[in-house]
Structure formats: structure tokens, C-alpha cells
Design goal:
There is one protein chain. With about 325 residues, this protein is mainly α. The chain is built from twelve helices and five strands. The protein has a three-stranded mixed sheet. A two-stranded antiparallel sheet has the order 1-2. Strand 1 and strand 2 form a beta hairpin. It is globular.
Length: about 325
Amino acid sequence: MTIPEIEYLQGKARILPVNTNMWINNQSSVDDFILLGFSDRPWLETPLFVIFLVAYIFALFGNISIILVSRLDPQLDSPMYFFVSNLSLLDLCYTTSTVPQMLVNLRGPEKTISYGGCVAQLYIFLALGSTECILLAIMAFDRFAAICKPLHYPIIMNQKRCIHMATGTWISGFANSLVQSTLTVVAPRCGQRVIDHFFCEVPALLKLACIDTTVNEAELNVLGALLLLVPLSLILGTYVFIAQAVLKLRSAESRWKAFNTCASHLLVVFLFYFTAISMYVQPPSSYSHDRGKIMALFYGIVTPTLNPFIYTLRNKDVKAALRRALTKEFWVKTRQ
């Protein structure tokens, strides 16, 4: 037995058949949102459940491992690994804010999320993404100071300054999310609650609005451009100076070490910014649902899962620290 749910896509209403036994029951609240996810391709749900579960386990394991060794291994007691551990904490929270709900919806009988849960997910996911934009720029500055100003590096990136920079990054990200989330949530939806996505995100929620969202889109685009394009420009500019400094190094080993360290960061920057810009620096009215889902999967699951392995596989210091962490002597020393 089916009932019609009205979904507005690309400015036109179409009738979407929704299985009442699957998504809507007598106990569900009228304020709950229905997350369509991949319901139009039910044959994908089981393999995606397995893939997301495995990716989430790897993300948890990889990021927790980096946080622990960065905090406990004295040989990783440096500004670079302090910021890497912050990035791992971000990625850990990033995946946890969306993946568990996605797994429940992929395997459970209902594809719903409560209004409060949707707002919380929107705010947290956006806050963590905003924080990562700024953190990646700070990590680029750290590499600039280490390579271009090696003699002044301990003074420039002292412990107190690193803590202040990290704290400011988190506060800025959550403040930006408060503004963007509010602009998204206050738009009236006229009862529309079918989200063609697998979690609550700004473009997908704005598509439910039953008013002209031109002003909202303009404000969100300005904030998105500031938060994405400005840090990215600073990162690229910083690496121009880094490249010039690296080419001046006489030792081939020193050049390779500097290149290897920076390459890991640049790869993380590319993976994150490419997908985020393609989603947020565009009018939500031109938002493509299938493309949006793929991009969201990339920066919401793939990137946080790959980040710890990128830093581990390309960094011999982290690999050595992980090997030490597997020995009994390491844990005996940390307890002393």
C-alpha cells in the first residue's frame, strides 16, 4: 500500500510513492524528516551498508590511533603533529555525526530522522567542515614557518600560540555554522519533509523551502566563498613560498623530506576542498541530487577515512611511532 508524498525538485512538484510500511507509521512524528538516500536504488543499500560500515571502522581506528600516538609519543611532540591530531579529532567527529544515522537508515525499516536530530546533524557537520577549512590553512602556515623560517620556527609556533590558533579555529568554525544553519533552518518548508539525501545538509534542506530563497542563497554563498576560497588561496600562496624555499635546499635528502611532508598535506587539501567547493560555492537552486550525494560521500566519509592513512603511509615518523606503540615498553614509559 502506498501514499503520495509531494517532493519539490528543480521547482516542479512530482508525486513520489512512499511505502508506508517502510517509512511512515502511526508512531512517527509529523515533524520527522524522511531521508530518501538511495531508496530509488534499493539494490544498492546492502552493499553500501557494508562499505560505509567498513569505512567507518577504518576511520575510527585510523584517527584514534593518530590522536593517541600524537599525544603519547614524545617524539611527535611538535606543532605539526599537534595540528594533525586536531585534524584527526575533526575527522573522527565528522564521520560520527552522519555515518551511524546513515547505517540505521540503510538497514532499518524507517528512513526518518527527527527534526531536532536533523538540526543537530546540520549544525555539527557544518561546524566541523568549517573548522577543517581553517585548520588546513593553519597547517599550511606551520609548514611555511618550519621550512622557510627554520631558525625562528620554535618562537613562531610556540605551544601557547598553537593552542590559541587551534582554539580560534574551532570557535570560528562553530560560529560560522551557527549563522549558516540558522539561515537554512528558518526558511519555511510548508510541510515538505522529504529530503533527497542521506543526511541533513544545507543544499538539500534549502530545496524544501516553499519561498524564494535567493537572499538565503546569496548570504550562504558569500559565507561559503569566504570560508573556502580565502583559506584555499592562503594555502596555495603559502606553498608557492615553500616550493621556492625547498628548491634552494642543497641536500637532496632535505628536499625529499620537505616535499614528502608537504605532499601529504596538499593531498588532504585537494580531497577536501575540491568536493566542498563543488557543493557550497554554487547556488542551491542548481543543486543536483545525485551529484550532491556523491560529493557528500566523498568529503563526509572517504576523505576522513583516507586522511590518517595518507599521513601514516607517507610519514616515517608516524609509522615509527605506531610501531613503538605496539610494543610493551612504550606503554610502560607512558605510565611513568
